[in-house]
From TrEMBL:
GO terms for biological process: lysine biosynthetic process via aminoadipic acid. SUPFAM superfamilies: 4'-phosphopantetheinyl transferase. This is holo-[acyl-carrier-protein] synthase. Its EC number is 2.7.8.7. Gene3D superfamilies: 4'-phosphopantetheinyl transferase domain. InterPro entries: 4-PPantetheinyl_Trfase_dom (IPR008278), 4-PPantetheinyl_Trfase_dom_sf (IPR037143), AASDHPPT_N (IPR055066), P-Pant_transferase_sf (IPR050559). GO terms for molecular function: holo-[acyl-carrier-protein] synthase activity; magnesium ion binding. It comes from Microdochium trichocladiopsis. Residues 156-273 form the 4'-phosphopantetheinyl transferase domain. Residues 34-130 form the 4'-phosphopantetheinyl transferase N-terminal domain. It comes from the Eukaryota. Pfam families: AASDHPPT_N, ACPS.
């Protein structure tokens, strides 16, 4: 948990890989995950069950649960009142009416709506990440009713990547096409200078991070013959690639814009470096120890330094990385004064228990 002024930042991870293991097909979740599915709206439930792969359906199910869970627990309201909407850019939000609304007409009600909690989720390779920002109550009883949550706008974004999920495919493509062509295939979502750094920069990682005996390959030029690169050298370059992807996804999600934002190619994480891999951990929900942290990457937008975004990239076990991004447009120092800590592991049982305590189930 991190705090700044009246702002509180919470970050959570849920591991879905060992959940509902009896389900081999998505439709099986209707029978083995009824307790969780009953907490969703009909539309959310339908979206979950449309996924072809059960692993994707499980991540989507937990993602939906987390959004309602954080609203119910943060605002101390019944689960049935955690009705989510979308802002003008399509980002999921929760709005609540202040007690004063009950004394006014429709126009006053619209003007009195508050956004007490801001959130964003991401998922990859079985893990789901959640970042939450709240305007902590400044008055009231601290139990939801009558609380004034303040009106600070807080933008948050999270992303999680797994460097090994597509490792075989990535290695095959790089050996067949070359590293530069692999990078060029994704150039439309990177900044121009970032693409050049990936292709020709020194993407050095500590030799201890990988298993190859030939340490010299870790600092090899990205333009080197891919067929002559060791698997460890390719892994080091891929780690840099996915670190950049994670940086950018978290930042763009923080802004609320899609990956096709007009300014996307003008965004640059200058001379970015991936965090070293963390030690191997268990695959259970208490495993995957956090590792090295990157907080100091310079961010540019159209050549101008971005000074209002607090961005933190960290390794999680040997294969995962998470990135958090926070800004407060009305007063940039509020966000910049927050030290973003590690993500906390959250169990499905905790989510379900809290939901049922809030009256959830049987929508």
């Amino acid at each position: 948990m991190a705090t700044g002024s009246n702002i509180q930042i919470l970050q959570y991870l849920v591991d879905t890989r060992e959940l509902w293991t009896e389900a081999t097909k998505t439709k099986d979740l209707e029978h083995v995950a009824t307790r969780a599915l009953d907490l969703l709206t009909g539309d959310e439930r339908a979206k979950v069950l449309r996924f072809y792969f059960v692993a994707d359906a499980k991540m989507a199910l937990v993602s939906h649960l987390l959004k309602h869970w954080v609203v119910a627990t943060t605002c101390s309201i019944p689960w049935s009142q955690t009705q989510l909407g979308r802002d003008e850019r399509g980002k999921p939000i929760f709005l609540r009416s202040s007690p004063a609304d009950n004394r006014g007409g429709e126009k006053q009600q619209q003007q009195q709506q508050q956004q007490p909690v801001f959130f964003n989720v991401s998922h990859q390779a079985g893990l789901v990440s959640l970042i939450v920002a709240t305007n902590r109550p400044r008055s009231g009883n601290g139990e939801g009713e009558g609380d004034d949550f303040g009106d600070t706008q807080i933008d948050v974004g999270t992303d999680i990547v797994c460097t090994s999920e597509r490792r075989d495919r990535d290695h095959k493509m790089i050996r067949e096409k070359g590293w530069s062509e692999f990078v060029d295939m994704h150039a439309d979502v990177f900044g121009r200078a970032e693409t050049e750094h990936l292709k020709h920069g020194n993407l050095l990682l500590a030799s201890a991070a990988y298993d190859d005996d030939d340490d010299d390959d870790y600092g090899a030029s990205a333009s080197a013959n891919a067929s002559a690169m060791t698997p460890g050298a390719i892994d080091a370059k891929l780690r840099a690639f996915y670190a950049l992807w994670c940086y950018r996804e978290a930042y763009v999600k923080m802004t609320g814009d899609a990956l096709l934002a007009s300014w996307l190619n003008d965004l640059e994480f200058k001379d970015f470096r991936a965090p070293e891999r963390a030690a191997a951990g268990s695959t259970t929900q208490v495993g995957q120890p956090a590792g090295q942290i990157r907080r100091d990457c310079e961010i540019l937008l159209a050549g101008e330094k971005v000074e209002d975004a607090n961005v933190c990239l960290r390794s999680l076990g040997p294969d995962f990385m998470t990135c958090s991004a926070v800004r407060t447009p009305g007063d940039k120092e509020l966000a910049m004064g927050i030290e973003l800590g590690p993500y906390e592991w959250l169990s499905l049982e905790q989510i379900l228990s809290d939901a049922e305590m809030a009256g959830g189930g049987g929508r």
